[in-house]
Structure formats: structure tokens, C-alpha cells
Specification:
120 residues; alpha+beta; HIT family, subunit A; 5-stranded antiparallel beta sheet; 3 helices; globular; binds adenosine monophosphate
């Protein structure tokens, strides 16, 4: 799937629409999800044009891959989630219900999160 430069996270990265920022460095931007599914629900996105984890791991430079993974860990730590625990999740493609075609990792925490998948 080709990257769509008009997706909402691309617009956030370009500063065209606002976000509730949690953390930013050269590699990542982290912000609160607009429709939180847990008391803490933060999205971490890499600073680059990648649709999915498969696209990212195949095509991103090593420095960005390292920076993205470090950024996810740092944000979870800084949110105080290391001791109580948390969940990270990345949707990819139609079966996962990925809505925004820019790679993002969800960080959920702040309550008991229950079983990993909800039956539908
Ligand atoms: P996904 O289904 O994995 O693609 O998740 C996309 C997520 O982006 C959803 O949880 C949305 O609530 C969230 N979202 C959509 N637009 C925004 C926005 N402008 N700011 C923050 N989160 C957003």
C-alpha cells in the first residue's frame, strides 16, 4: 500500500493539525489518543512515511527503527506504566481495523486491561 500523505497523522507530524503531545524527539512523536480506550491511551508514531510495521521494518533506516523502539519504551516508562504494567498494540491492514495508514503503536494502561483480544 502506498503511503497517503494526507492521512491525519501525517498532518499532525507536519503541524497542520494539533495534537495533545506527550513526547517528541528526532525519531518519534507521542500524543494522547483522541478517543481513549483506557485511562492512559497514547499513540507513538515514527517521523517518516511508513504505513505499517512491515513497511517500516523493510524500508526505514536502522537509526529510525532504533529511535522508534526506544521512544515507545521511554514513553511507557515516563507515563509511570513500568510497574503497574501496560499493553502495546499496532494494527496493520483491514483485518486489524487499522484506521490511520501511518504506522503507530498504541500504549494502553491505567487499569486492568483484561484479555488480549475481544471476541467479535
Ligand atoms: P488504528 O485503528 O490502530 O488505526 O487507530 C487509530 C487511532 O487514532 C484511533 O484510536 C483514533 O482514536 C486515533 N485518532 C484519530 N484521529 C486522531 C487525532 N486527530 N488525534 C489523536 N488520535 C487520533
Amino acid at each position: 500500500m502506498a503511503y497517503d500523505r494526507d492521512n491525519i497523522f501525517a498532518k499532525i507530524l507536519r503541524g497542520e493539525i494539533p495534537c495533545n503531545k506527550v513526547y517528541e524527539d528526532d525519531f518519534v512523536l507521542a500524543f494522547h489518543d483522541i478517543n481513549p480506550q483506557a485511562p492512559i491511551h497514547v499513540l507513538v508514531i515514527p517521523k517518516g512515511e511508513y504505513v505499517s510495521m512491515a513497511d517500516f521494518t523493510a524500508n526505514a533506516p536502522d537509526e529510525l527503527i532504533v529511535g522508534f523502539v526506544r521512544g515507545i519504551g521511554k514513553v511507557a516508562r515516563d507515563l509511570g506504566l513500568e510497574d503497574p504494567g501496560y499493553r502495546i498494540l499496532a494494527n496493520a491492514g483491514p483485518d486489524s481495523h487499522q484506521e490511520v495508514p501511518h504506522l503507530h503503536v498504541h500504549i494502553f494502561g491505567g487499569r486492568k486491561l483484561g484479555p488480549m483480544l475481544v471476541r467479535s
